[in-house]
Amino acid sequence: MAEAAGFVLAALPLLVEGLRAYLKGIESIKKYWQHTKILKRLIRKFQVEEKKLENTCTELLVGLVDDIELGELLEQPGGKKWQEKGLQLSLRRRLGASYQVFFDAVTDMTEVTEEFVERLELDHNHRVRFTPYHNHSQYHMAD
Fold this sequence. Notes:
Structural class: mainly alpha
């Protein structure tokens, strides 16, 4: 479950970059000015959520791991270190009855993040891919 937190930490910056790429495209077309405002708010919300999760993970990990490991865990979200049994056990002890609730929330965030990554059609370099023949109208944002 800790790897889910790692996935979200890794994916949120990618979502922000993907949305920024969409924003640049939309800004060039005046008729989409309202969508630009929506995307800017969405980018800001993702950035806030990213920092909240990062701060929460930092607070959870302080005292459980040394500073070097803390940096590695935050730099490599979803990496093998997040899956180590010792860390999992320490997190379970620290969170107590909140452990499941916390990781359920992280799982929810993971699902939303994965959906955005899929809808933004990010490539393996985490860049938005557009083709001249691809129809993106299915993702029209409601007014």
